[in-house]
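Lecture notes, unit on protein representations.

Consider one protein chain, 499 amino acids long.
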Amino acid sequence: MGIIDWLVIAGYACMMLAIGAFYSRQNKTAEDFLLGGRRMSPIALGLSLFATMMSTLSYLAHPGEMIAHGPMLVTQCAAHPLIFVIVGYGLIPLLMRQPVTSAYEILETRLGTGIRMAGASVFLLLRFAWMATILFATCKVVLVPLLGCDPKWTPILCISLGLLTALSASVGGIRAVVWIDAIQSLTMLAGAIVTLLVITLRMGGVAEWWPQAWPTHWQTPNWGFNPEARLSFGMLVLSTTLWYVCTNGSDQMSIQRFLSTRDAAAARKTMAVSQITDVLVSMLLALTGVAILGFYRVHAPQSVTAAVLAADGGDQLFPKFIMTEMSGGLAGLVLAAILSAAISSLSSGLNSACAVLERDFLSRNSKQPGSDAATDAATVVRLRWLTWLVAFVAIALSVVNTFITGNLLERCFKVINLWTAPLFVLFFLALFVKWSNAAGAWLGLLSSIAVAVLVAYSKDLGFNLGVSFVWMMPCSLLVGIVVGTVGSALTRSGQGSSR
């Protein structure tokens, strides 16, 4: 890291804080702070939605997965047209009809206060685990080797990154979060392009890093639904579709962006921009992984061998290339892209968690966040303090990640996606099952969580189900919906017969 690299990163941090300060004047009510007055640009929101979901975990995991296991992960992009149809025309119209700030207000209308509290709590568990994992991965995988410091400094770096993000998010609200995300999405795109250009120029052309034969350590392509294969095309498309449907249909971070637009058509445009950007960046990151693998095969074959043998070795080569092979400010630019992925996700997580804490717990019994100017001002102040509280909790939980094994892709599934399907089970029952009730929803939620834990941690619990971790979401979603639907029918008939 040279002085120019540090200036690039410092300039990026100052820009982020300046945007937060600029939008702080526009947050006069809680709806301004959380939804931007429901009139925000769908293009900016789409870029923000992409940047929110493309965290450091994904930004590093895509090249790392390509280096260590091959291109099977990229085939998940085939699911995006189907995802857009289901979310854009199946879920968004239903969600946009709801006059809510928190997504979990929807659950109370159909399934009662207890289920609303359960849904809000599951969301908080999911996003706290997610933010903690992002902090841990960014600091341990990127900042520790970059700064050349001992890994024991990881907690200090987590605190610093968390506080910087909280400072911007607490001041600027959702408007600042969205516009910072939009800029960060372009920074992520530029980071991947710069890396590809540097490797191509250093090696004398694309043909020099493009593999001439299938690397022996890459997974053999599997185009079916093989439960024993680490990744297979059928399961990736199914799992990716379910993840996006579940996330966009039940996660406050996604629904909050849809609610920040004028209507369903604008929300659909937000979804389209997010999906197109996601495919573009995923492809570029996959090519980045191939290019880095090709570079090290020529210049440092021992690094490739170490990456293949280590569980998370592929995740380390991208940061290593930045640190050792880039100069003249380019390292600062690509590192800014990686930090962008972290900060955009963290800031969105902070704002959405605050929305849920405020609307579902602190002001649950009021129809609007405030009733007059004084109350609105007090609510905005409370939301800013909540942002700091959420940041401190996420920082504290980041230490837990030291006990999770596997590369970044597996961390995403085992730590974060564990709660995604169970949460959507509640929304599925509330929106699509007319006879659903609270008892059935509780049964569906608990059974879905139990199945997710069994599939994700069967080896850690001392037995092996014989299926890959990517089966966690389809299995837990199916069991949760079936149990919730049948349970609602049985408890409803039981209540009817008792009367």
